[in-house]
Design goal:
single chain; 47% helix; 15% strand; 4 strands; alpha+beta
């Protein structure tokens, strides 16, 4: 057995302290479980990654590059587009990202 005090008063004090500490631990666990549940809900509610991205320039009007959806090199000014729009953008001379190579993924041959 551990080294506990021999008298009842100190044992009761220790018991009270441990009950308070256990309550704090349980509240911390409940808070951590709540945060984890919220994190999971946010992951599940996240919209799916688009198949193709069109990166816009600083003026947000003129397209700059076409990317595969989820490309690490896509800028913050990117928007999701469909396959046909991605092919049309490449055909219109918009540059294909050199990192994700959407032209290869789309089977687009220049010319």
């Amino acid at each position: 057995m551990t080294d506990l005090p021999p008298d009842l008063l100190r044992l009761r004090t220790l018991e009270t302290f441990l009950q308070l500490l256990l309550g704090e631990v349980r509240r911390a666990i409940a808070y951590a479980e709540q945060r984890e549940a919220e994190r999971q809900r946010s992951i599940e509610a996240r919209p799916p990654t688009p198949d193709w991205l069109l990166e816009l320039g600083l003026n947000r009007a003129s397209p700059v590059q076409v990317h595969v959806g989820g490309c690490w090199n896509a800028g913050k000014r990117s928007k999701g587009i469909g396959r046909e729009d991605a092919l049309r953008a490449l055909a219109d001379g918009i540059k294909a990202c050199g990192a994700c190579r959407p032209d290869n993924e789309l089977g687009y041959l220049e010319g």
